[in-house]
Amino acid sequence: MPNYTNNIQDSKICVILIGLPARGKTLIAQKVVRYLSWLSIKAKSFSYDDYRRVVYGKSNELTLKDRYEECYRWVETAVADMIEWFEEEKGIVGVLDGSNHSESQRDKIEEICRKHDIKPLFLESWFDKPELITNNILDVNSNSPDYSAIDPEEARKDIEDRIELYKKDYTTLDTSTDADKTFVKMINIHQSIIINKIDTYLQSRIVYYLMNFHIKPRTIWLSRHGESMYNLEGKIGGDADLSQRGLKYAQKLPEMIQKLVGPDEQLTVWISTLKRTYQTSQYLPYKKLQWKALDELDAGICDGMTYEEIERQYPEDFKARDENKYLYRYRGGESYKDVVTRLEPVIMELERQENILIITHQAVLRCIYAYFMNVPQEESPWMSIPLHTVIKLEPMAYDTIVSRIKADIPAVSTYKEKGTSQLGESTDSSSSKTRNIITSAKVHSL
């Protein structure tokens, strides 16, 4: 497997966002950080609004003029904190989430970055479609911490006034005047992208990601295969058939999905190349695509063994996996980190698509779920993804809404508690934690 982190350890990049208010800058910042962190690349967003809220409180607690004149103060603080993070915590990609609308401010940030051997990458979100701007204003109005307790009409007016004020000295990026700068200009998010002077591997990875995501509302459905014969026997890996209860789940799944998405809505179903996922999907009346990348984590020489057998035959390995389950690689097999690497094309395609149902395996779903929920890597291998349960993900600008729909069909637990070879279900508390100031999870059980 390619190791991205080996290629970029000596790189330091500052992504400098540019754009008027209500241009989706915070969404872009959070998605870039989430993607890079998922790939084990140390990334962090420094939001100017967060710094302003610490000093002055919510947006409406300062006059518009004061907010505008004081903005340079929290920009300087954010940049200083980012430099400290690069130096003390060995950061790789820092993201400055703010308007950075004036050319003079951008030049000052670039000068500081170059002084500290940090490559600046300017990223502008530029809109010329009124309907998109209106939608973004409504989204900021509904979800931003600044407007949580403000009358919606007052909030809308405040955002529109800010846009007009910032327009006065706003300078957009242009290939003729900014030919010497490394930059990406996203026009109406996904309509078109202008790329200029991208010259490092990591910059190209960020650009590739930006070219693939959109902000349309969509739903992603996740399900493990039905209970398999190996699940009944407590064995891992393999290519076993479904059990009788697993077949019942496969027969129940079309009714569940059609009830959830609506009888006229279309889905594309993605499955692995292993029999148990195909058997689970066989009754679904939708187009199906097989992905080798969705195959279960390769357990190497432990394939087909129970945890008790692994603990008995390979006690040192059993202990080492519990101590660092994300990085531990089975002998002749894979680690969770390896699975993340091979899942990157799947994530890219998921970002491009709208409504997808993925039927795959426990470890693979943990990795996909961790991406959308911004779950720390050390926690992701311990999340509970039970059998005979459909997980509904609704990615939003400021959070991801999660619902879990259980089928009324019993199944064994395949969850192994840390430090034991016994199987037993865990409570999935990790998915309800707030991951950072902007991105949180809302979890519902139906």
TrEMBL record:
Keywords: ATP-binding, Hydrolase, Nucleotide-binding
Region annotated Disordered, chain positions: 417-446
Record bears the keyword Nucleotide-binding: yes
One GO molecular-function entry: 6-phosphofructo-2-kinase activity
Polar residues composition-biased segments: 420-439
EC number per UniProt: 3.1.3.46
One GO cellular component term noted in the UniProt record for this chain: cytosol
KW Nucleotide-binding (keyword) present: yes
Domain 6-phosphofructo-2-kinase: from-to ranges: 5-217
Pfam families: 6PF2K, His_Phos_1
Family: In the C-terminal section; belongs to the phosphoglycerate mutase family.
Protein name per Swiss-Prot or TrEMBL: fructose-2,6-bisphosphate 2-phosphatase
